[in-house]
Amino acid sequence: MDRLQVSGGIRLSGEVRASGAKNAALPILAASLLADAPLTIGNVPHLRDVTTMIELLGRMGARVTVGERLQVEVDARAISEPFAPYELVRTMRASILVLGPLVARHHEARVSLPGGCAIGARPVDLHVAGLEALGAEVRIEGGYIHARAGRLTGARIVLDTVTVTGTENLMMAATLARGRTVIENAAREPEVVDLAACLNAMGAAVSGAGTDTIVIEGRERLGGCAYTVLPDRIETGTFLVAGAITGGRVRVGGARPEHVDAVLGKLREAGAAVTTGADWIELDMQGRRPLAVDVRTAPYPAFPTDMQAQFAALDAVADGVSTIVETVFENRYMHLLELQRLGADLSLDGRTAVIRGVPRLSGAPVMATDLRASASLVLAGLVAEGTTDIARIYHIDRGYERFEEKLGQLGARIRRVSGPA
Ligand code: UD1
Q: pLDDT at position 114, please?
């Protein structure tokens, strides 16, 4: 199994380009199941989660062509097997995104329950209840969600909790329902907006995406379209933290500054000079040690849970004491134990972590536990003395495109090695 070895102590400097957003590419790939014609999707990041989604679509009978320049064409007209098996769903929870489109367009779906997850229970009850409200008949049996429906019927759905993929699943299903669907307490993430724009390009009538009320006027059919996925705001934020933690100067090109407001605010609070243009962000730490910043995660536009682990790494070496409160996932703190192995001084009480910044960390073997946790260990490794050896980096490959290569472009000493530690 591959590992990453990071030698700390280099101040990062230079420019990287943001890749397409994983969390937009996945629902947009799933949306191809709704169409009567092929979809051409551009700026698709080359990631393991994307490969998993493509494999899933392929197994169902879709014809998928992966072209040059990050373009993927999906022709899902002939779905023969509306089935998402456990072996794929357990490696990628976002597989649940095929449920809504399958029920709406193919009137049937069998999708494995995602099962346990390293960052909390993460149930899918709201996806299921929403589909039932739209008229689907759902049975949970043998670890699978079995759903059947004739043509779905529009309904008013109030989500108890803000759920990103739940909003996306129901929005997709509603595009082919009879009549109007209103989703209240909808997620406002930019990826939801990107999916809505793609659905509209396919002929759907979705309005209000980006607010907490999304209205969908159902259509008889949707066609194909060409759509370009928006840049990844979490990858963007991760590279900016890499600049900040090393006291460096990093520019991220092809980015959308308006999608990372909360993160940029925290980086400024940490002492970074941040400048932005229409499609770039530059961070300059001028060699300074970051100041400790408090973080409280919440749905967009608040501070994203997907950036919490990276800020924990920043706070571990910051000047001062900080508090991190994770409100989205109850157990998203696995990285803290690993950061402690690198010398971080912290304590955890329920959903609140208190981190007392130390002047330096020291390299050690550590283990990646989930996608963003892995990124935080790499960031910590960039400033730890000596070598940090990170195992189980398949988590990183799920969501960061050419991570070590891009960090290398900024001057980091990082290499991928194969075999056991
Ligand atoms: C998405 C993102 C993930 C991000 C998360 C929160 C994708 C592919 N993944 O995950 O990177 O960390 O949003 O920003 O876009 N919940 C329920 N019942 C449900 C659904 C969710 O109780 O039916 C709860 C979850 O347990 C969690 C909260 O709602 O506590 C938010 O989860 P949700 O927004 O659904 O996360 P995902 O969509 O899985």
A: 83
